[in-house]
Specification:
Elements lengths: L11 H10 L7 H4 L13 E3 L3 E8 L13 H4 L6 E14 L8 E12 L10 E20 L2 E14 L9 E13 L2 E10 L12 H5 L2 E9 L2 E10 L4 E13 L2 E11 L9 E11 L2
Length: 288
């Protein structure tokens, strides 16, 4: 008689971890942040960071108020157009790999977001606002399960954001933040909390910005068959203010996807941090 050994039951915890670690969409945080030896690419290589896109947008109520001290746009008939071209560029590059012989990488990231009144010919088609956001990030891998998802990374960062303007148009703030990244079966969740670095009252252009921009954000993306569904949520529970941005990207051609975006709330741009807007846009998303 031949005795066949009984198959050892697989640990439910290990099964969940293995399933969560296998991205079904082709995207993984391990690849995006080079979290293990198989994905390391060395230093000073440009990599994707925040989404890069070009969209045509429409808002019902442009925020004219900040510009009135410089030009009475209502009398001149050159008020802000309801339609804009908005483009965002985002990239990162690794400065140090395995710092202090530990699994910790130091990254530099940069995001630039510009709002172009391209159709506003009476006002000479100006760039209404451009926001600049450099940041430094210390990233280390994680490997445990939480809420049915696989925790993949922990990120400590410091970020500056400003619009490069002066006088009453100037907006800026600095933050330190902590972020955790989770993933499972095409879902990616990035949760972040931040603390604003206080400035002197004389230099603070927007001392109430936290009331509108909150103390953190949640970014959720689901990828399936080449389609990306995303939601970015900010909320200040003390003031009840915040914002929601929804995105949908679909395969188009080469390194480009079609992209539709809806934004509702405060802070679409720095100049609008305390102005509530509903904005719809459609255009192209780069997948470089």
């Amino acid at each position: 008689m031949v005795v066949v050994p009984a198959k050892t039951a697989e640990s439910p915890i290990k099964a969940v971890a293995d399933a969560a670690a296998q991205p079904v969409s082709g995207f993984s945080l391990a690849d995006y942040w080079e979290l293990d030896a198989a994905h390391k690419r060395g230093v000073f290589n440009f990599r994707p960071h925040t989404p890069t896109y070009l969209i045509a947008t429409r808002t019902a109520h442009p925020n004219d108020a900040p510009y009135r001290p410089f030009r009475d746009i209502s009398d001149l008939g050159t008020g802000l157009a309801h339609s804009e071209l908005v483009f965002q560029l985002g990239f990162k590059l690794k400065l140090i790999e395995n710092a202090f012989d530990k699994p910790v990488d130091l990254w530099f990231g940069y995001t630039q977001n510009s709002f172009w009144q391209a159709s506003n010919h009476r006002a000479s088609s100006p760039f209404r606002e451009t926001n600049y956001q450099p940041e430094l990030m210390l990233v280390t891998p994680l490997n445990f399960n939480v809420l049915g998802m696989h925790a993949r990374l922990f990120n400590l960062g410091i970020v500056h954001q400003s619009n490069g303007q002066s006088s009453t148009l100037s907006r800026s703030w600095n933050r330190v933040y902590a972020q955790v990244g989770l993933e499972r079966d095409g879902w990616t969740v990035l949760g972040r909390v931040w603390k604003r670095i206080n400035e002197s009252a004389r230099d603070d252009d927007n001392r109430d910005i936290v009331d509108y921009m909150g103390r953190g954000d949640l970014n959720v993306t689901y990828r399936h068959d080449g389609n990306d569904y995303s939601a970015l949520v900010r909320h200040n529970f003390s003031t009840g203010r915040g914002a929601v941005q929804l995105g949908y990207a679909w395969p188009l051609v080469g390194h480009f996807k079609g992209y539709a975006q809806l934004f509702s709330g405060y802070g679409q741009s720095m100049i609008d941090y305390n102005y509530y807007q509903n904005v719809a846009g459609i255009g192209l998303l780069g997948t470089f």
